[in-house]
Amino acid sequence: MKINYERRWNEIKKNLDEKDAFITSLPGNTRYLGNSDSPPGCPPGSTMNFVIIPRKGEPIAITSSLEEHRCIEESSIDDIRLWTLYPDIKSDGKTALDVLKNTLNEKKIKNVYIDSKIGLGRGIKASKNDFVTEMRGVKTKDELERIRKAIKQSDSGQEFARNLVECGEGLTEREVRTEIDYFMGRNGIQENSFTTIIASGPNAAHSHHSNTNRKLESGDPVICDFGVFWDGYCSDITRTYFVNGEPSAELKEIYQVVLEANKLSTHELKAGNSGHNIDKAGRDFIRSKGYGRNFVHGTGHGFGLEIHEFPSLTYKSKVIAKESMAVTIEPGIYIPGKGGVRIEDDVLVKGDNPQVLTKAKKDLY
Ligand SMILES: [Mn+2]
């Protein structure tokens, strides 16, 4: 299913109030408005420095000579303007901001919504508006189709990871990471959605571990957290496995507590419920088992064009879950020096019946 950019542009136009245009410089938002099927690449995160959605007329994208041809090839926006430092290259200005200012001048745009700080100068009245960032929280059919494909790939990566880790005594975290990445790469993913995390033994107590040469030992918990880009959209999944399938009694208990917290928070992911309540459901249970201070992060986050996006599901979150939001539910317990467990699913809000999209096994033996 093709991405319907017209719909996105029109939604923004409808929400311009009295403004002449909406301008974004956020990479996730420029991809949303210009080239959703492409992953961010590396660097710079987006081929477009700015996208302008004027009240009247067609959208405009601003790119650099470095990204020009990729941008032209991938962009759904026809009016692409170019900046470069190099005199041999025909351009519209020397910096992205120059080109933006000239374009606004040319189009007689004076009053704008922006979603990030842009130094437009005195001539332009700019006010901040998060409409697009929040609009991206609710996923449409074309987006869910892509997200489901990304999840299918990370699910099969987890099946591979489970076998590898359980039989992987003696392998280093980096070797495990490399094998998983290679497996998913051969299955045709565009990119990893972030650097694959393999955290073993005591390293599993670090919620965001950076892989080391530590060798997997029998009984180790091994947190495997990764995701992929497929047609521009992300997945994000975490499972915790045990080397030789032999967790200690303590880790076994912790695993069951985290799994139950995962289910409780997932159950609360209903349209109309608050981020706070969704977080609280799992957190209260973890607290009741005596591990409150070991659950050191929020319960989940939106994902889509970016791995972390609106909404954020934390204890302080006032956000209200809406139909068709796609979020992670990922409670964890971390015991310094010993290890930890995190179980993360990707879940879709569907009325009162949250739909767990990730299918990789999570029951303990
Ligand atoms: Mn996550």
Quickly list its features:
365 residues; alpha+beta; Creatine Amidinohydrolase, Chain A, domain 1; Creatine Amidinohydrolase; six-stranded mixed β-sheet; three-stranded antiparallel β-sheet; 19 strands; 21% strand; binds manganese (II) ion
Task: Provide the fold topology.
Layout: H1 5-14, E1 21-24, H2 27-34, E2 48-54, E3 60-64, H3 68-74, E4 79-83, H4 96-106, E5 111-114, E6 125-128, H5 131-135, H6 141-166, H7 173-186, E7 191-192, E8 197-200, E9 221-226, E10 228-230, E11 233-234, E12 237-242, H8 249-268, H9 275-288, E13 300-302, E14 309-313, E15 326-329, E16 332-335, E17 339-342, E18 345-348, E19 355-356
Parallel strand pairs: 1-5, 3-4, 5-6
Antiparallel strand pairs: 1-2, 2-3, 7-10, 8-9, 9-12, 10-11, 13-14, 15-18, 16-17, 18-19
Helix pairs in contact: 6-7, 8-9
The protein binds manganese (II) ion.
Describe this protein's structure:
- With 365 residues, this protein is of the alpha+beta class.
- Helices cover 32% and strands 21% of the residues.
- Strands 4-3-2-1-5-6 form a 6-stranded mixed β-sheet, sandwiched between helices.
- Helix 6 crosses helix 7 (173-186) and helix 8 runs antiparallel to helix 9.
- The longest helix has 26 residues, at 141-166.
- The radius of gyration is 22 Å and the shape is globular.
- The mean pLDDT is 97.
- It binds manganese (II) ion.
How many discrete structural domains?
A: 2
Number of alpha- plus pi-helical segments? 9
Number of strands: 19
Describe the largest sheet.
6 strands, mixed
Strand portion: 15-25%
CATH class of the largest domain: Alpha Beta
Question: Could you name the CATH topology of the largest domain?
Answer: Creatine Amidinohydrolase
Second CATH tier, the architecture of the largest domain: Alpha-Beta Complex
